[in-house]
């Protein structure tokens, strides 16, 4: 699954266009490499997202095409 689509489906970022913009501005990293919007993610990948003066780091647990709020919460886990 594409990183921009994963960020939207997992509800880490509200809209796919915002996820695309974050990738283009090099604020999203997959396994410590800057991610382009089309970068493929797979289960086990570590995603780092930089927001303003904060950041969030998560591990991909599930790739689901259709996600409700409950399913979205199971798509990733926080990593320290």
Structure write-up:
The protein is an alpha+beta fold. A 5-stranded antiparallel beta sheet has the order 2-1-3-4-5. Strand 3 and strand 4 form a beta hairpin. Helix 1 crosses helix 2. It is globular. The mean pLDDT is 94.
- Order of strands, main sheet, comes to 2-1-3-4-5
Q: Biggest sheet: strands, sense, closure?
A: 5 strands, antiparallel
Kindly name the structural category.
alpha+beta
- Cα-atom Rg, whole angstroms? 11 Å
Strand content: 25-35%
State mean pLDDT (0 to 100 scale): 94
Number of DSSP-assigned strands = 5
What overall form do the CA principal axes indicate?
globular
Task: Write down the secondary-structure element order.
Answer: HHEEEEHE
Count of DSSP H/I helices: 3
Low-confidence stretches: none
Helix content: 25-40%
Q: N- to C-terminal separation? A: 24 Å
Topology of this protein?
Layout: H1 3-9, H2 16-24, E1 28-30, E2 33-34, E3 46-51, E4 54-60, H3 69-73, E5 76-78
Antiparallel strand pairs: 1-2, 1-3, 3-4, 4-5
